[in-house]
């Protein structure tokens, strides 16, 4: 099944505005759909396209890059003759798939773009690790975009529920709750999405069969692939990366979800593990969320490097990772979670899926945490901080604190203290909860399925 992806529109904009003056690199986690997107774009938007997969490219093609890349006319003549392609200038796309497997091809992009006859897409995972860039000059003619797992909108589109997706956005824009029946349907589908996740193969397995077990089998294969990548590419960080990766579910299941390094070793320090966390983030396996100690526009200016949450990039993978006690996770376990019959810390899943939606919308992830050892009255914990335009400040950006609630009964003490402390820096407050939309002016309570609207 081919899914409609929001990233397709970004590629259309690139094609129209750049007109061959840059190549586009599609970065993303393994199995996130990069090659499928590139192939679909070439098929639909060009009269000819060629995909060269460097995970299985013939040795003679590699040799062609090594020996002829400084003579681009000859290089292209040989390349196109080998693949028996009769291209049309300015209407042909050449795709370098899995370009991290042969960095020389990425370096050649500079000369190919200067030639100007064709458009070029690249796809890659683990694209920035030292092994894949140490011997090449990264071309300035290359721009990049991130491809995330399917967000909730894309999941709804895959289920032929685009009208519902549109109604969700209309409800958010007008701050008017949807009718009860549609709210319940959206909430149920969001819980399905939370369990299945957004990896295209897992979504395809679920949509075709309406079977959580079929999706779980796919996700287990992806997790195995990730573990193999760690063993193969993390080099001298393998043990540390593995230790972090295996502890993510247990760390997120805590009431306070900050990653505690002493869970790995009593003497563990951030400086000893910072490269391992960077590797996981760079491989797009995790979404890092850092504490911003003085919330203001420019959240990264006051970032506490050693205080962070480590979310998984896909919540469906987190579910499978967390419930991997046996060789398979049964449909019954998934359905018990779906209908809230299993006693688990659901905050782990809801906070992770919200982080996933924010990342898909292009947000960097920040939270706020203040602990006062003398009195709990001054302690605060805000799940996420977003910079958003604020109508009461003439549309200028203010900091919006976002609290994520997995149950219908909850308190708002931290939100109240946060506004009292930071006053004019604060814009609209948001609470994402399992209930309907409620507009209270400065504070808006949104159903969880609207996280991607922020």
UniProtKB/TrEMBL annotation:
It comes from the Bacteria. InterPro entries: AAA_14, DUF4143, P-loop_NTPase. Residues 228-406 form the DUF4143 domain. It holds the Pfam family AAA_14. Coiled coil: none annotated. Residues 22-156 form the AAA domain. This is ATPase.
């Amino acid at each position: 099944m081919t899914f409609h992806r929001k990233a397709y529109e970004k590629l259309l904009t690139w094609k129209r505005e750049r007109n061959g003056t840059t190549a586009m690199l599609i970065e993303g986690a393994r199995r996130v759909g990069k090659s499928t997107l590139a192939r679909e774009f070439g098929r639909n938007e060009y009269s000819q396209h060629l995909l060269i997969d460097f995970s299985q490219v013939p040795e003679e093609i590699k040799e062609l890059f090594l020996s002829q890349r400084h003579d681009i006319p000859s290089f292209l003549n040989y390349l196109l003759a080998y693949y028996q392609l009769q291209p049309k200038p300015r209407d042909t796309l050449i795709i370098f798939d899995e370009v991290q497997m042969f960095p020389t091809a990425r370096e050649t992009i500079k000369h190919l773009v200067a030639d100007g006859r064709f458009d070029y897409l690249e796809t890659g995972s683990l694209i920035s690790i030292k092994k894949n860039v140490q011997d090449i000059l990264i071309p300035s003619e290359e721009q990049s975009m991130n491809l995330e797992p399917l967000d909730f909108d894309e999941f709804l589109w895959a289920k032929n529920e685009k009208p519902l997706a549109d109604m969700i956005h209309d409800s958010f824009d007008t701050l008017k709750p949807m009718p009860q029946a549609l709210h319940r349907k959206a909430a149920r589908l969001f819980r399905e999405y939370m369990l299945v996740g957004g990896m295209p193969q897992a979504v395809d397995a679920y949509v075709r069969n309406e079977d959580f077990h079929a999706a779980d089998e796919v996700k287990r294969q992806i997790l195995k692939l990730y573990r193999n990548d760690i063993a193969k590419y993390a080099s001298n960080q393998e043990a540390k990366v593995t230790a972090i990766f295996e502890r993510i579910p247990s760390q997120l299941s805590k009431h306070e979800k900050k990653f505690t390094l002493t869970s790995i070793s009593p003497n563990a320090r951030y400086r000893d593990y910072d490269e391992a966390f960077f590797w996981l983030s760079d491989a797009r396996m995790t979404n890092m969320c850092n504490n911003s100690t003085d919330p203001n526009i420019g959240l990264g200016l006051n970032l506490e490097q050693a205080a962070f949450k480590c979310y998984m990039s896909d919540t469906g993978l987190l579910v499978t990772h967390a419930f991997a006690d046996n060789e398979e996770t049964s449909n019954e376990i998934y359905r018990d979670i779906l209908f809230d019959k299993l006693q688990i810390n659901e905050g782990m899943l809801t906070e992770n899926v919200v982080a996933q939606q924010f990342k898909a919308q292009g947000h960097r992830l920040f939270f706020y945490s203040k602990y006062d050892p003398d009195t709990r009255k001054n302690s605060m914990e805000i799940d996420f901080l977003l910079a958003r335009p604020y109508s009461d400040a003439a549309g200028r950006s203010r900091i919006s604190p976002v609290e994520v609630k997995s149950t219908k009964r909850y308190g708002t003490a931290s939100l109240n203290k946060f506004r009292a402390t930071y006053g004019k820096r604060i814009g609209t407050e948001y609470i994402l909860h399992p209930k309907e939309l409620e507009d209270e002016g400065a504070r808006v309570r949104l159903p969880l399925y609207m996280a991607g609207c922020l």
